[in-house]
């Protein structure tokens, strides 16, 4: 198979979907890998490393999309990339379809086979989402702590406080991968941390592994509102695989928070779990609503591209090799993991949660795969 690795064109996105080591593995498997010139530079991989690994470098991105039977990306296709996708072509990337109806319909119209990193399931885990969730969870505290500084418009508080000065309060909504990593980081900086979740078994686990300055609390609208007046940094870390995130904090709720407090909504790429959330970029990461600073960057891990690229590609490469070896039809029919990743096949929506988000019909993924 001919695989293509284009340069990411989302604003200030410097990750790349394949390292030179990945290129080497795929060429050893007998595939041809086309890499757009400069695709890996932002992650510290010059073109020469790809050439030495066996890649063919292309300066013309249109030619790359035209020649490649499978496209490997990091972020969701941008409008120019949606226009380049063609029938029967495999596109393997983060899509987050449930947050973007235009993207969903555009990729359906393209006729391409869309396999989403974020919905690929192994048991109850999402192994291709996990590494970026880990990065985003840790970064949410870094970015939130920075936004709390007075020069950034924040309250002017230090997360860990000082001897004789109380630490800040960090409220984390969601005890999954993002929430756990955020809580670890905030606790390590000395903050007083509360994690809210609905899964009692998960909270029992977190009680066992978290340090003493982390408290778990069963989540409800009333319980969240009771915490907000004492919250300096609110982190939204809720995920429903493939679906839009539920709105746990309303605009009215924000009025309960202290002036110049900060929220970081990591769920923004799935629509956000805070009502006033809207996607921002690393160029202009924050805005203010009801006196609360919002940090809602939809590609947070893109700010640390080298770390993120290694973390992502370590997880994706085995599945990239599988797709390249089997093709879309065989991969879906023979491996349930790839079936869970298939969101759109040949113009048909095959992931029910996305259909529910936009009131679009969805088909059974195995039935559609049989017709490919």
Name the features.
14 helices, Rossmann fold, single chain, about 35% helix, about 375 residues, seven-stranded mixed beta sheet, eight-stranded mixed beta sheet, 2 domains, alpha/beta, 15 strands
Write the layout of secondary structure elements.
Blueprint: E1 2-5, H1 20-28, E2 32-36, H2 47-53, E3 56-58, H3 61-67, E4 70-72, H4 79-84, E5 90-93, H5 101-110, E6 113-116, H6 130-147, E7 169-173, H7 177-188, E8 192-197, H8 200-209, E9 214-218, H9 221-227, E10 233-236, H10 251-254, E11 262-265, E12 286-289, E13 292-295, H11 305-334, H12 336-341, E14 342-345, E15 348-349, H13 352-358, H14 365-370
Parallel strand pairs: 1-2, 1-4, 2-3, 4-5, 5-6, 7-8, 7-10, 8-9, 10-11, 11-13
Antiparallel strand pairs: 6-14, 12-13, 14-15
Helix pairs in contact: 1-2, 6-7
Describe the overall structure.
With 372 residues, this protein is an alpha/beta fold. It folds into 2 domains: 2-126 and 305-370, NAD(P)-binding Rossmann-like Domain (Rossmann fold, 3-Layer(aba) Sandwich); 130-303, Rossmann fold, CATH 3.40.50. It has helices at 20-28, 47-53, 61-67, 79-84, 101-110, 130-147, 177-188, 200-209, 221-227, 251-254, 305-334, 336-341, 352-358, 365-370, and strands spanning 2-5, 32-36, 56-58, 70-72, 90-93, 113-116, 169-173, 192-197, 214-218, 233-236, 262-265, 286-289, 292-295, 342-345, 348-349. The chain has an 8-stranded mixed sheet, sandwiched between helices. Strands 9-8-7-10-11-13-12 form a 7-stranded mixed sheet, with helices on both faces. The longest helix is centred in the last third of the chain and has 30 residues, at 305-334.
């Amino acid at each position: 198979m001919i695989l293509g690795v284009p340069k990411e064109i989302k604003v200030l996105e410097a990750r790349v979907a394949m390292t030179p080591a990945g290129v080497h593995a795929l060429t050893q498997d007998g595939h041809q890998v086309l890499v757009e010139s400069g695709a890996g530079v932002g992650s510290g991989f010059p073109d020469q490393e790809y050439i030495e690994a066996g890649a063919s470098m292309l300066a013309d991105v249109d030619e790359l999309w035209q020649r490649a039977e499978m496209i490997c990306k990091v972020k969701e296709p941008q409008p120019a990339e949606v226009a380049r996708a063609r029938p029967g072509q495999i596109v393997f990337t983060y899509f987050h379809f449930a947050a973007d109806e235009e993207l969903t319909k555009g990729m359906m119209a393209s006729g391409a086979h869309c396999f989403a990193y974020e919905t690929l399931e192994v048991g109850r885990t999402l192994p291709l989402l996990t590494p970026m969730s880990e990065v985003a969870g840790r970064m949410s505290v870094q970015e939130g702590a920075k936004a709390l500084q007075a020069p950034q418009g924040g309250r002017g508080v230090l997360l860990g406080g000082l001897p004789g000065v109380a630490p800040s309060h960090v409220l984390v909504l969601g005890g999954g991968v993002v929430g756990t990593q955020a809580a670890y980081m905030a606790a390590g900086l000395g903050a007083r941390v509360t994690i809210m979740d609905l899964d009692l078994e998960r909270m029992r686990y977190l009680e066992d592994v978290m340090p003493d300055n982390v408290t778990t609390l069963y989540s409800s609208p009333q319980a969240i509102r009771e915490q907000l007046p004492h919250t300096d940094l609110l982190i939204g870390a809720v995920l429903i695989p493939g679906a839009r995130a539920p709105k746990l904090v309303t605009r009215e709720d924000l009025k309960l928070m202290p002036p110049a407090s900060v929220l970081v909504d990591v769920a923004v790429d799935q629509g956000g779990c805070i009502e006033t959330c809207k996607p921002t970029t690393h160029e202009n990461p924050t805005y203010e609503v009801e006196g609360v600073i919002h940090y809602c960057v939809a590609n947070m891990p893109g700010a640390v591209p080298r770390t993120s690229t290694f973390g992502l590609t370590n997880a994706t490469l085995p599945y990239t090799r599988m797709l390249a070896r089997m093709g879309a039809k065989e991969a879906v029919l023979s491996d349930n993991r790839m079936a869970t990743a298939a969101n759109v096949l040949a113009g048909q929506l095959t992931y029910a949660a996305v259909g529910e988000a936009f009131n679009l019909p969805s088909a059974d993924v195995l039935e559609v795969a049989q017709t490919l």
